[in-house]
Amino acid sequence: MSEIKKSIFIKNGLLLLTLFTVACSSKASTKELKEESQKVSSWAATGQMIGNAWIRDAVPTTYAKQTLIKAESELQKSADKIAKMQLDTAAQEQYKSKILKHSKREEMISEKMSKAIGEKNKSAVKIQLAKLESDRSELQKLSQP
Questions:
Q1: Are 77 and 39 in contact (CB under 8 A)?
Q2: What is the Cα–Cα distance from 102 to 104, expressed in whole angstroms?
Q3: CB 142 within 8 A of CB 95
Q4: What is the distance between the alpha carbons of residues 76 and 65, in angstroms, rounded to a whole number?
């Protein structure tokens, strides 16, 4: 085989290997999306527990606020990760859209609850807890594609 043919063969092989690697790595699986969904649900549950504990005066205000700030941050990370996922089917994309919506909504609720706790406003915290419970319930009812 001539040097030119070897060079072309090697380049084509590398190109195919690169394309195969990109194709395999750029698509997220439904499993990965479900894992992020579970993280969102878990952080929402954390927010509920903290909010309820704070209302009962079972945790200090500072601890409650710090935990909710952490929840906001983790929910944002999940939302960012979900938004970047490229999925294969329209059903998966629709599921992704719903999970993303819940993640962003729960992040906003956590932010409002943190603010209400900082203001020592138990009635406002109760309102956010009700919203969080409702949203979390909806999230758990979603069926994956």
A1: no
A2: 5
A3: yes
A4: 16
What tokens were used for 60? 């200090």
pTM: 0.76
Q: Which residue is it, tokens 């700030």?
A: 69
List the helix and strand counts (H, then E) for the chain.
Answer: 5, 0
d(CA 141, CA 105): 16
pLDDT digits (tens, 9 = 90+) for 41-96: 999 999 999 999 999 999 999 999 999 999 999 999 999 999 999 888 888 888 89
Question: In this structure, what token pair is assigned to residue 122?
Answer: 């138990």
CB atoms within 10 A of CB 119: 11
**How many CA atoms lie within 13 Å of 118's alpha carbon, on the beta-carbon side?**
11
Structure tokens at 89: 């089917």
Residues 6 or more apart whose CB falls under 8 angstroms from that of 116 comprise 122, 124, 125, 128
At how many degrees (to 10) do helices 30-55 and 61-84 cross? 160
